[in-house]
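Batch job 17 of 40 flagged for manual review because the log was empty.
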Amino acid sequence: MFGLIIGLITGGIAGWIAGKIMNNEGSMLRNILLGIVGGVVGNVVLGLIGIHGRGFIGSIIVAVIGSCIIIWLVNNLSRQ
């Protein structure tokens, strides 16, 4: 249960930061979901090149990078 709460907090922070970086505002729920999905995407993408986030700050950085990738993909796919 505690891991789920930490995951939601990390996802919310990462989604909010990614939204600010990509100039994409959304609701808090959307930011949390974006951060969680971004964490998975970030772990996969960065894991392929041998980079892994350790600890709370490392997890947020990886999730932010993944969230930025997701935001970029959604923005580009929705324009077509």
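Reviewer: the log was empty due to a logging misconfiguration, but the result itself is present. DSSP finds three helices and no strands in the chain. Unflagging and moving on to job 18.
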